[in-house]
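Researcher: Here's a chain I'd like modeled. Treat it as a single chain, no partners, no ligands.
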Amino acid sequence: MAESKTLYPAVGSYGPCAVKGLKVGETKKWCTCGLSSKKQPWCDGSHKGTGFKSMKFTVEKEQEVYYICNCKQTKTPPYCDGSHTSAPEVVEKRKNACAKKDGHVKDCKLCTNCGWVPDF
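Model: Modeled as a single isolated chain. Structure tokens:
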């Protein structure tokens, strides 16, 4: 049996997106890769070729504001669980320890080994 590799996403931002106007029963695609620059927290297909897939979820309860994770570190996707408060340190340690960090190049859109993305 093939061993699955943990993929590390890019960080959209270190804080949740406050989303209004979701309706009970509505299905959305949450961005899991962190590359969706124009539609965060929703998927725009930027993950193609990275190994990530969007996560479909259905709104189950009515509320005025939904706090959707944008750091991609939550343990309760797609909802924010506060992981963004410790994520900067965790992500930087992972990037500094990345076995591929010397090979990060500007034309690579995401290092799934550590979550590195080029500065645009």
